[in-house]
């Protein structure tokens, strides 16, 4: 699932291309918006809230989308071929005079009143990538359920928004935290600060890197490396599901560098 940095980069590209420009054509390919025509409205701005994307339009409307597992927005120049996937995966097309934004595989796509955006993102905790990130609130949210595992607490977007399985897994490794450690038994400030620092560092490039080596197969310490040797101690990386179904996630950890409490 795309994490906050991926959504932030998509937001920046869309805002630079569409912000301040009039939509000359819109095409929504989801049942709830099939007859919606937003042509003539101006794209005021595109903003990210955690893993959510908000496209604010003139007239007080907002297009709300969420990438979930494999959704994405692509930008094309007029006449340029679309390469984001087959046509049947297109969910939205937004055209200006200079750009065409195409939304692929978007499982969440809806139109809300801008003044009512809180109905779709109001439940989110502080956004890790926001310039106005409320660190103290994020720490208080995480500390509110001290018996919860640190893995589940970090992935709960109501506590802090933007972090996903990749960063959660890598942060736990870098801090030597077993995935099943309780939130009340870890240094929450160090956990939040490292999460934010890693995500902000990766805003500069498309790949998510925690090792400092931006090459295929070398970007993570433990994420998606089950059965492989730990980069620090050579112990075999382990994996197991964490969390309650149906939202359980796969966790990766080194039994030596991240000992059980």
From TrEMBL:
Top-rank taxon, per record: Bacteria
Presence of the UniProt keyword DNA repair in the record: yes
Source organism of the structure: Kribbella ginsengisoli
Keyword Cell membrane: no
Formamidopyrimidine-DNA glycosylase catalytic domain mapped to chain residues: 2-103
Cross-referenced Pfam families: Fapy_DNA_glyco (PF01149), H2TH (PF06831)
Keywords: DNA damage, DNA repair, DNA-binding, Glycosidase, Hydrolase, Lyase, Metal-binding, Multifunctional enzyme, Zinc, Zinc-finger
Domain FPG-type: 221-259
Signal peptide region: none
Family: Belongs to the FPG family.
EC number: 4.2.99.18
Protein name: DNA-(apurinic or apyrimidinic site) lyase
């Amino acid at each position: 699932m795309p994490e906050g940095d991926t959504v932030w980069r998509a937001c920046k590209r869309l805002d630079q291309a569409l912000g301040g420009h009039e939509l000359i054509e819109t095409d929504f390919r989801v049942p709830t918006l099939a007859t919606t025509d937003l042509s003539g409205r101006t794209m005021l701005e595109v903003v990210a809230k955690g893993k959510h994307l908000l496209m604010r339009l003139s007239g007080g409307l907002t297009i709300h989308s969420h990438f979930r597992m494999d959704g994405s927005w692509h930008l094309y120049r007029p006449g340029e071929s679309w390469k984001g996937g087959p046509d049947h995966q297109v969910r939205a097309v937004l055209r200006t005079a200079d750009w065409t934004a195409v939304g692929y595989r978007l499982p969440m796509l809806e139109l809300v009143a801008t003044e009512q955006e809180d109905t779709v993102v109001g439940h989110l905790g502080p956004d890790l990538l926001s310039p106005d990130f409320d660190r103290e609130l994020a720490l208080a949210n995480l500390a509110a359920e001290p018996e919860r595992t640190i893995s589940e607490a970090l992935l709960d977007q109501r506590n802090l928004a933007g972090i996903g399985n990749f960063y959660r897994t890598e942060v736990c490794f870098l801090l030597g935290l077993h995935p099943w450690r309780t939130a009340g038994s870890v240094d929450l400030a160090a956990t939040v600060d490292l999460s934010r620092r890693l995500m902000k560092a990766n805003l500069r490039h498309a790949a998510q890197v925690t090792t400092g080596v931006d090459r295929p197969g070398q970007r993570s310490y433990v994420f998606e490396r089950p059965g492989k040797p730990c980069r620090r101690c050579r112990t075999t990386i382990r994996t197991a599901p964490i969390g309650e179904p149906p939202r359980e996630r796969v966790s990766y950890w080194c039994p030596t560098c991240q000992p059980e409490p």
